[in-house]
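May I ask you to comment on the folded chain given beneath this request?
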Amino acid sequence: SSRPRRHRLIPQTGNQAPVGPVPPVPAYRKDVFKNQPGTWNQWDNRVRALHDIGKNEAHAYREIFAAEGGFRHDPTAKDVVAGVTPGTLKTVAKQLEKQGINTSGGPRSIDRKDFPKVYRAILDEALKQVGGSKALEKIPDKTTAAALADAIFAQGKTGGAQIFQRAINAVSPGAVPVGTIIGPKTFPEIVRLAGDSKSRQPFLDAIATQRKAKVPDQNEWTRFDHFR
């Protein structure tokens, strides 16, 4: 008689595509998305559709999109869409054009379905010294990974790097030099502090503190504190 087959369980890895239900909108942004019905679910589907998307990367793109208020119209920043500025878009234009995305008309000319690709291109550029957007999967804590992506996105490649370098030094004095990029000296320290249960929370607190020091506009502080 034949024995019943046993299905081999494949262990989950950090680089697997995210599965499961759509995560809820972060609590501090729920009111913003009430006026954008369906937008959050559509964004989640588009993020999941990215080639070889990992769990940390997907979480980071959801958090950034939420922090930026989705696709809401901001009259004070009319040329900015989902947090993407014309200046930032220019820095990744060549990457996006290779994917068939025309950037010549600025952020407002890009199809909404392509914005996850824009987010990825921004992180690929900012983290190119350590593996691009895929570096997020090497960080053992998804909140730290999302905080890194959000700081780069909101404060820029250099500003985000310096925020993290100063936060590292606040927890481990003198651990890294303060420079202009997340490089091979800074990134291992991020991984180390995020992976240690004793240092993770002090590190997240230090990141929020450094972001507040960089951006004195208190309207943004709820965003920074969200990543604690």
Observations:
- The longest helix spans residues 142-171.
- Confidence is low (pLDDT under 50) at residues 1-14.
- Residues 32 and 69 are 6 Å apart (CA to CA).
- The two ends are 58 Å apart (CA to CA).
